[in-house]
Amino acid sequence: MARPFYVTTPIYYVNDRPHIGHAYSTVAADVVSRYARLRGKPTYFLTGLDEHGLKIERRAKEEGLAPQDFVDRMAAPFRSTWEELGCAHDGFIRTTSVQHRENVQALWKLMQDRGDIYLDDYEDWYCVGCESFKTEKELLEGNLCPIHQTPVERIKERSYFFRLSNYTQPLLDYYEAHPEFVRPEARFNEVKAFVKEGLRDLSISRTSFRWGVPVPEDPEHVVYVWLDALMNYVSGLGGPAEEGEAPLYDEFWQSSGTITHIVGKDILRFHTIYWPAFLMSAGIRLPTQIWAHGWLTVNGEKMSKSLGNFLAPGPLVEAFGADVLRYYFMREVGFGQDGDFSHRNLINRYNGELANGLGNLMNRIVAGIVKKNLDGRVPKVDLDALEDIDLELIEKATAASKQAAKHLEALAFHRALDTIWELVSAANKYVDSTEPWKLAKQDDKTRLEQVCYTVLETLRWLSVMLFPVMPNKCNELRAQIGMGPLLPTEQADLWPSAWGGLRAGTQTQTATPLFPRFDEIQERSVLERLGVEVKDVEPGSSAK
User: Fold this and answer.
1) Which CATH superfamily is domain 5-293 in?
2) For residue 127, is pLDDT > 60?
3) Pairing with 195, which of 312, 338, 533, 540 sits 20 to 30 Å away (CA)?
4) What pLDDT is stored for residue 489 in this prediction?
5) Residue 206: half-sphere exposure toward Cβ, Cα within 13 Å
6) What CATH number belongs to 343-529?
7) CB burial string 82-118: b at 16+ within 10 A, e below
8) Active-site annotation, residues
9) Which residue ranges make up each domain of the chain?
10) DSSP code of 186?
11) What is the DSSP letter of 12?
12) Tens digits of per-residue pLDDT, 149-160?
């Protein structure tokens, strides 16, 4: 049996509703988990919510609600958004749950037993937005947070500390022994450079607010929100608080399986320095890999409340469909790099690649040639009698399958889609070269059947390779070529490797086009509904 695979998103802070930045992380994790399931791996995908901290306490007060009532209200939009986007998570952790609180307190006791926690006075600058302390060196002029560019607060209080300074060398040793621990490499270099400067002990409790996990045996203190939040990756599986009664924890964390955290680059330090140090102290295994993706801007501008350009995923899903938005996220931006979300680029990708590329290939063969000339059935062909041009497309499909798998395993989603779209393009060129419409007129049925089968089988392969990114559209495609939906299991590797899986005589189905094109009028209408300025839409932009 394949090794277990565990993938997580960051848990999202519930001070506001989900936006496309949250969606980007969650879709990426869903793509990774769907790919792992296709390969027959036992897989668990966790997401959830970070519900403690000063920022939540203040926001709840502004809303006239108790903190628990506030976070309960905010949880629903996150759940519904992931459902709308087709993100099939296995677990949804909330840090206000009893299970999580018990695990945070268990982690605290393990670190305390190790001698890594002590009580002292603390004074430093604190950013409420980051829920973290900042050094003088990190602040911008005017004592501003470098991330939020808002004033930080001077905090002085009694605090428990974690002996992070003791883990400078152990962390550096671990980084050297595990060169793939943080991706992309440039981010890993930043982390190593920071640690090499030496680490200060870390304040891990607060007394100036009450909304958090109480410190064991000292309830005047609540656990620092990042120590609390990071433990979600373990508590979401049951964790050490339920050792012996937590089969998910045993299978997906304690085993030799793969553990992958997907996070934004702004929270990389917490995940690559604090989190592994906490785990080292507690004697718990470390994750296999931490992937930091970049930030998304919107139409060239940073998302901010003041600009009013926080984009909710819901209206985009309504306008384009979940799978189209998922495709755009994974296609447009190299994972690990900063990128821009542009409504017009989305439409251009849709028309140019989905409608003109894959959709056109489907329509030409299934709704056109096969329906009209082969009674809508998959033809029977002798695979040993195929011509060179057929074999060339098969070779391209085989190479694309191997290369796309390699890219998906490295979370290089855009490269995987580049590879897959080279195959889509090759298949369309194959149709242009073989001209099946002429074969039908010439009554060359044997050759017509060879060409149609080659394209239909290519479409079958594409339906599997694209499934992690566009699961619903791929199952629609499969239905049209007479196949059932993909149902990944832990018993079988479903990634395409053997040619000839389509059975002769299978009845194909014609339905509405997978990706109907947007014309200029439809483009303008969609952009207007989404509140995008349309006065400068270029004539013919929808045809790009």
Assistant:
1) HUPs (3.40.50.620)
2) yes
3) 338
4) 79
5) 22
6) 1.10.730.10
7) bebbbbebbbbbbbbbebbbbbbbbbbbbbbeeebbe
8) 19, 22, 127, 130, 145, 148, 302, 305
9) 5-293, 343-529
10) H
11) E
12) 788 888 778 999
